Each structure stands twice: as C-alpha cells, then as structure tokens.
Amino acid sequence: MSEEKPEPGPGGAPIELVSVWTAQGEMEAQVIRAALESEGIDCMLTGESLRLALGLTVDGIGEVRIMVRSEDEERAREIIAAFQSEEDEGGAGSE
Question: What per-residue confidence (pLDDT) applies to 9?
C-alpha cells in the first residue's frame, strides 16, 4: 500500500500536517487510520519504508507516523485517546 498525500488546500496553498501518533508497525497504523477516517479526519501515514517489507518494528525501524491537518490535530488526538482507552479495556493498544 502506498502512502497517500492530502489534497492541496484552498487556492493550492500547502497544507500543514502534524504527527498525532507513532504506531509500532503497519497494522496498528492502519487501525488508527481507520478510526480517524471513520470520524471524518483525513490522514496519511509516513515512516520508514521498511515497515511495508518487514511488517515489524525494531529500534524505530518500521515505525509509522500518522499525520493529520493541523486544524484536525486536537480532535484527532481525542479520537485516538478514546480509541486507545477502549482498546486498553480489551487488553490491547499502547503508545
């Protein structure tokens, strides 16, 4: 799966992206991405390209950063915190 880039802002102005989560592998990143997108927040995944080949994280190799528009940062962090809280109750999830 390739990394996606958000569309330019109004008038073609660049969009400021901020990192809201660092996932420990592709699977965790995709789950967080789905949670954000289900709430209407566009995001993109960035990180070490080895994450796709290896499928694991070793000493930072394979980490995936979840990036959102700066105006979505606060809401995205709230969604991730709520999602992680639900996961923790089920025995999974961490940062």
Answer: 62
Q: Shortest CA distance to 51 belongs to which of 66, 60, 63?
A: 63
The ranges assigned to domains in the chain are 15-76
0.90 exceeded by the pTM? Answer: no
Q: Residue 55: pLDDT above 70? A: no
The Cα angle at residue 12 between residues 79 and 64, in degrees rounded to 5: 35
Return the residue matching tokens 């990143």: 29
In terms of Cα–Cα distance, which of 80, 75, 70 is closest to 33?
Answer: 80
Q: Helix, strand, or coil here: 22?
A: strand
CA 6 to chain CA mean position, Å = 13
